[in-house]
Design a protein that fits this description.
about 120 residues; single chain; globular; mainly beta
Length: about 120
Amino acid sequence: VQFTTDTERPPTPAPRSCVIDEEELKDGLRVLIPMDDKLLYAGHVQTVHSPDIYRVVIEGERGNRPHIYCLEQLLQEAIIDVKPPSMRFLPEGTRIAAYWSQQYRCLYPGTIVRGSNDQEEE
């Protein structure tokens, strides 16, 4: 059995930007979209009237009711769901969205902070 060292393995590519370009707006594009409660919800884009009007269907929402957006609003509010391949792409200060609990289908926005190595109980 031959083992490889870190120097032989190609580096993990950095994740793509979560900003959506107009050229990427295609049916089925997975996005995170903020709703009235300021939390992010996963959904997918569908074209209503290209290139001006789109709808986003939120995953798990009752009735699959689409949310309608004009092009400018969708490009400003929606972001692409990007999962970093490793922790090294999450330096302190990085903005993220994470699930608080498996019981909820929304993601909470947050920022990476340095944790304490102190494991003492108070």
